[in-house]
Amino acid sequence: MPEDQEQPTFEKGLQELEEIVRTLEGGDLSLEQSLKLFEQGVQLSQRCRKQLQEAETKVEILLKKDDMRVPEPFDVGTADQNVPF
What we know:
Layout: H1 10-26, H2 31-65
Helix pairs in contact: 1-2
């Protein structure tokens, strides 16, 4: 990707990844087309994961900078039950 081209947002990458999954699940592609889409999906997945990790790091830095409490792991199963606001 050229440096002057802006990296797509996380949301755009996730949307593209979902479209690739739908296309692959359709089963109407040749093996070559499927492999090409799968490769694109892996690259998108890696990029989205990197963006999430960068966002998590920024949050942790900001919390530490403001002497706020250390973030705890997010538990999806109890997330809706423990909302403090």
